[in-house]
Amino acid sequence: MKKEHYGFTLIEMAMVLMIVGLLLGGMLVPLSAQMDQRNVSDTQKTLSDIKEAIIGYAIANGRFPCPASATSNGVESPVGGGNCTNFYNGFVPAATLGITSTVDNQGNTGFAVDSWGNRIHYAVTSWNSASPSLNDVFTTTNGMHSVGMSGLAPNLIVCSVASTYSGSCSVANSTLTSSPGVPAVIYSTGKNGASGGTSADEAENPDPNSADNDRVFVSHDFTPTFDDLVVWISPNILYNRMVAAGTLP
């Protein structure tokens, strides 16, 4: 008697492989989204830790550290503060702050990096609008103490949309920071690692290669063209903690 042979035809195998591929593809999308969310959460924690380290540095030294330049290996530039070389478009001086640094996506150490390997940016006010003749008081040793709390007026501004002016938010009710401004802004350029490109909002957050190097920054929810993570130091919280520590009168 002839034996019957059973098995899958090529068409049936192709259909099974297609179904398995669809199932795997459906699993990979949520996994990628979970990874992105974890990177965002980890970076937000890193930004918060850096913010606390900068406040602690200000309390201990009576001034803010200057941002690190692109070539200073995570050390503030210049060493000792004063007239910073990169007030608005520098990086977190991880080496000066004593923050553990990891290798960035350019193969350099000494810088604080986000979860995507990008160097984290740091800007500090270069102008004290209450006493314009006393520039750099926020980055000069005991400079804040010398003018007193009533004489301090930092001027970094964070907007919810890109500004067409270098000194203010150009859209009504888009200013996120108190008047006249804040002393420091810390931000990650996010997954895309860009400061600009097709996004005017990202272009407002400068880097050393950016033409937009001013005191205005942007922060808002993620969009397809904006994934920066931005935090800033409230002057009121800063002054309260410095007074409690005896650094401010």
Plain-language structure description:
By secondary structure, the chain is α+β, with helices and mostly antiparallel strands. It has a domain at 36-63 and 122-245. It has five helices and six strands; from the N terminus they run αβαβαββαββα. The protein has helices at 10-61, 94-97, 143-147, 200-203, 235-245, and strands at residues 90-91, 121-124, 157-159, 184-188, 216-218, 229-233. A four-stranded antiparallel sheet has the order 1-2-4-6. The termini are far apart. The mean pLDDT is 86.
Instruction: Give the DSSP E fraction (strand runs of 2 or more residues).
Output: 5-15%
Distance between the termini: 106 Å
Rg over C-alpha atoms, rounded to the nearest angstrom: 24 Å
Low-confidence sequence ranges: none
Strand order of the main beta sheet, please?
1-2-4-6
User: Could you give the count of β-strands?
Assistant: 6
Mean pLDDT: 86
Secondary-structure-derived class:
alpha+beta
Task: State the helicity in percent bands.
Answer: 25-40%
Contiguous helical run count: 5
Oligomeric state as shown: single chain
- SSE run: HEHEHEEHEEH
Largest sheet: 4 strands, antiparallel
Task: Using the alpha-carbon principal axes, give the shape.
Answer: elongated
